[in-house]
Amino acid sequence: MSLPILLAALLAAPLSPAPAAPPAAPLAAAPAATLSPGPAAPLAAESAGLHCAGDPAASARAGRTPVLLIHGTTSNSQANFSWNWDRAFDAEGRARCDVDLPDSGNSDIQVAAEHVVHAIRYLHRLSGTRIDLLGHSQGGMIGRWAMKYYPDTRAMVDDYVSLAASNHGTQEFVVQCAAQTVCSAAYWQQRAGSAFLTALNQGPETWPGVSYTQIYTRYDEIILPYRLSALPAAPNVTNVAVQELCPLETVEHFGMAYDNAAWLIGMDAFRHPGPARLSRVSRSTCGWPLMPAVDPLRFPANSAAALAQSAKSMLTTPQLTAEPPLRHP
């Protein structure tokens, strides 16, 4: 079993930590906040967990739109992107920032979204132009919450490229949270049909002026069924499985962070106006398992580090007995 598949199996399994490291006692969901979403509280770049490289203004002037990278649940920027997409953008001379979500993306996504809002505003201000977003799993969805409830950010984003996004949740977490009776806040919120996702997807799911490229895999074992990643059809939306580009691709959920076909499609979106178009993407490297920026010699170690990060965060994050209440009417 490969390390990415082992990681996926761990995430799909009920949480049963070793006796030496028992999980925190289950917590009841916090009471509902009385304030509706509005301007995100000002945060220093450090407190928002931002890690940036390159000159955003110079990158934008050179035609390489700066990118904000948003990691997935149980992960962080180091584990999710430092050894794949960060390296790709750095090699291209494209400025980028990575945001670390609170509690490794396990806690209330509504709170985590405030960090994303700050990061969008911060990178947009440095760039002097619209920026791009790249997200994996929760990271491919959370930017939509930011743009829905903090409307000023809509004019700050050009492309939103999502890898195996939890746009409409997953049946996997429905089953898991029901069986365990407790889950992390983010797992509750990413159940298909959750109050959080119902609020997110009520009304427009996309916004004019933003191009959405939703990239997913037919072998996703976390987002079930995998088509829950897709967004409603529109001129500014491309929904595409990596198997539509490379039919023999067997990548699963976590492998989407370093998959070559996902990289080919994503870069097409970043390098052209509008969302990705398969007609522009070469199939000459179909069959390559890793995107070019991934060092194959360090791949086992990097995968192991990603596995360790997710395992640690799953065993230590608070477990709730119910979904956190919505922070808006």
The helical percent reads 25-40%
Proportion of residues in extended strands: 5-15%
**Residue windows where pLDDT falls under 50 for at least 5 positions:** 1-36
Q: What oligomeric assembly is this protein in?
A: single chain
- Biggest sheet: strands, sense, closure? 7 strands, mixed
CATH topology: Rossmann fold
Structural class computed from helices and strand pairing: alpha/beta
Q: Sum up the overall morphology in one term.
A: globular
Give a description of the structure:
The protein is an alpha/beta fold and 329 residues long. It has one domain (3-10, 47-316): Alpha/Beta hydrolase fold, catalytic domain (Rossmann fold, 3-Layer(aba) Sandwich), CATH 3.40.50.1820. It has 12 helices and 7 strands. It has helices spanning 3-12, 56-61, 77-81, 85-92, 109-127, 142-149, 171-180, 185-189, 195-201, 242-245, 260-271, 299-316; strands spanning 50-53, 67-70, 96-99, 131-136, 157-163, 211-216, 237-241. A 7-stranded mixed β-sheet has the order 1-3-2-4-5-6-7, with helices on both faces. The longest helix has 19 residues, at 109-127. The termini are far apart.
